[in-house]
Amino acid sequence: GESVGLHLPTLSVQEGDNSIINCAYSNSASDYFIWYKQESGKGPQFIIDIRSNMDKRQGQRVTVLLNKTVKHLSLQIAATQPGDSAVYFCAEMDAGGTSYGKLTFGQGTILTVHP
Amino acid sequence: DGGITQSPKYLFRKEGQNVTLSCEQNLNHDAMYWYRQDPGQGLRLIYYSQIVNDFQKGDIAEGYSVSREKKESFPLTVTSAQKNPTAFYLCASKQPSGPYNEQFFGPGTRLTVL
Lengths: 115, 114
Description:
The structure holds two protein chains of two kinds. Chain A is mainly beta. Chain A is built from no helices and eleven strands. The radius of gyration of chain A is 14 Å and the shape is globular. Chain B is globular and about 40 Å long. By secondary structure, chain B is mostly beta strands. In chain B, the strands form two sheets. In chain B, strands 2, 4, 5, 6, 9, 10 and 11 form a seven-stranded mixed β-sheet that branches. A four-stranded antiparallel β-sheet of chain B has the order 1-3-8-7, with no helix packed on it. Chain B has strands at residues 4-7, 10-13, 19-25, 31-37, 43-51, 54-57, 64-66, 76-78, 87-94, 103-105, 109-113. In chain B, 0% of the residues lie in helices and 50% in strands. The N and C termini of chain B lie far apart (35 Å).
């Protein structure tokens, strides 16, 4: 079946560096993508989203890039801080499909930021 | 404060027992979801509900049941038929204004079968 996966399960960076977390998706019908951050023992928190009619979207210290040609999604975190240490998930959805709001999640990437 | 609450935070169950996990939201969201998360893995959809008195099976519904009698509440029952119920369970809800909106998650319930 269709799935969303991540290239790198772990990422270690130094405080102040920029981080890039990647995600590959296989459902060509997916038209909405979300990045979530999950800290240990907590529920996922929304970071940023992007629709398929966009290539890039920026938030506070975060940028999501979407390459529909190669079905690739990335999350860039600028000036990474220790508080950014968490597991990051990408999720995709076929908003035009029959499964209303059903998200498919990737495996997750563990980001560790060293002081 | 608006949000999603799940209770209890930790739950222990003996084999062969059914157990019900609570999920309540005061965000006026129509859609609600239950996910299961195993260590080091992503979220897998158990059940979802688009509206009161309606729900659909997700990818791993076997051994679980739900009800949606009120807009605010979407309880999940883990039955004795679920072979490996020990996991972290997450409830989510979604704004009613169309598909292009994120799901908001509760804090989760960690279920352990003894």
